[in-house]
């Protein structure tokens, strides 16, 4: 089958012929119907994130935002059947550790990152293996087709968890999202659906235009103001209730925390780059004085996908609104290359793997 293979970090990527996967007894194989192209693939390609455990031995197949149709099921799998259309989280869980048993599979003790770790070759491929299929394959309701679900990859579902659970975004709250890439735009769309007044902050006008289309009540171009955090505090009469760093660089993280009012909650979704290597200095005394909460958010637990899928079924959320373009597997390397200069808007989805 064809797959996008990472042979050497930072060197050009290409499409290669590789072996089809065989299912483990607990695993299932899905034919990939769609897979989003994400900045996280770009980070993995660059060889970032060894501090996060996301630097695989090479060669390695990239891709971590798939939806698909089940084509083969391991002998020990009980709840998943051939032919089922499924959403697939990127953060595979074991189902046995205490976190999994307490509904926190997204931070499973035995976490395997699809497309980022040796144990899980990625999904820019005709087929992908899903370990512990009973937990990690999420059947789609009949009313949601795989096309629609293809926009629900890591950025959308991660933003759902960040806004609905970790940020606990409520009706009428002021939410500011710093960084309007795929995660940021998804967070804006979702926070708006949860009833918040959302402000988008970015450096690029076309991304801010998309932010407004997706529900931001206003936007700030950080290039046009002295200090975007001061601007947000002015707009919100004292500071936002919830801030999001959707990018993971020092500037956006600091600006997000500085945008908050007293008692505010910061949600960190973006992972840092090779400049920060996982560490960003923060104004801790101010965090104390304002009783600011700083919360991390990783993926979405499969057991809570149903909440997001219900909101999609009822039309409150529309992941297809985030999908900017559909491409074939041979265009994936160029799409990732374009991310070097932040030249992508929204979520590109690869939906043709065999051409
Ligand atoms: Zn676990
Ligand atoms: Zn992603």
From TrEMBL:
GO terms for molecular function: adenyl nucleotide binding; anion binding; oxidoreductase activity, acting on the CH-OH group of donors, NAD or NADP as acceptor; zinc ion binding. The keyword Oxidoreductase applies. Pfam families: ADH_N (PF08240), ADH_zinc_N (PF00107). Its cofactor is Zn(2+). Residues 11-347 form the Enoyl reductase (ER) domain. InterPro entries: ADH-like_C, ADH-like_N, ADH_Zn_CS, ER, GroES-like_sf, NAD(P)-bd_dom_sf, Zn_alcohol_dh. It comes from the Archaea. Keywords: Metal-binding, Oxidoreductase, Zinc. GO terms for biological process: protein tetramerization; small molecule metabolic process. Belongs to the zinc-containing alcohol dehydrogenase family. PANTHER family: ALCOHOL DEHYDROGENASE-RELATED (PTHR43401:SF5), L-THREONINE 3-DEHYDROGENASE (PTHR43401). This is Alcohol dehydrogenase. It comes from Natrinema ejinorense.
């Amino acid at each position: 089958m064809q797959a996008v293979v990472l042979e050497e970090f930072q060197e050009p990527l290409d499409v290669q012929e590789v072996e089809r996967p065989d299912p483990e007894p607990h695993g299932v194989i899905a034919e990939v119907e769609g897979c989003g192209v994400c900045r996280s693939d770009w980070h993995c390609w660059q060889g970032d994130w060894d501090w996060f455990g996301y630097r695989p031995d090479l060669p390695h197949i990239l891709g971590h935002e798939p939806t698909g149709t089940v084509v083969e099921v391991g002998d020990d799998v009980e709840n998943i059947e051939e032919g089922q259309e499924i959403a697939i989280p990127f953060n595979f869980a074991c189902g046995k550790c205490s976190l999994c048993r307490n509904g926190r599979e997204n931070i499973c003790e035995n976490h395997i990152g699809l497309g980022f770790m040796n144990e899980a070759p990625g999904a820019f491929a005709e087929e992908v293996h899903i370990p512990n299929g009973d937990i990690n394959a999420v059947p789609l309701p009949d009313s949601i087709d795989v096309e629609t679900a293809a926009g629900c990859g890591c950025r959308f579902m991660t933003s759902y968890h960040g806004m609905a659970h970790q940020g606990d975004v409520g009706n009428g709250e002021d939410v500011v999202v710093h960084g309007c890439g795929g995660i940021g735009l998804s967070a804006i769309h979702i926070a708006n659906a949860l009833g918040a007044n959302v402000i988008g902050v970015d450096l690029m006008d076309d991304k801010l235009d998309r932010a407004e289309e997706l529900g931001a009540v206003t936007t700030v171009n950080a290039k046009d103001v002295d200090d975007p955090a001061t601007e947000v505090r002015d707009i919100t009469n004292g500071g936002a209730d919830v801030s999001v760093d959707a990018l993971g660089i020092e500037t956006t993280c600091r600006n997000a925390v500085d945008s908050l009012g007293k008692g505010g909650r910061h949600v960190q979704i973006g992972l840092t780059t090779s400049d920060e290597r996982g560490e960003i200095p923060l104004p801790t005394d101010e965090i104390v004085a304002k009783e600011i909460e700083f919360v991390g958010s990783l993926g979405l637990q499969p057991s809570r996908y149903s909440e997001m899928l219900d909101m999609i079924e009822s039309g409150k959320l529309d992941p297809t609104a985030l999908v900017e373009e559909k491409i074939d597997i041979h265009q994936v390397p160029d799409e990732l290359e374009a991310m070097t200069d932040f030249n992508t808007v929204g979520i590109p989805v690869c939906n043709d793997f065999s051409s």
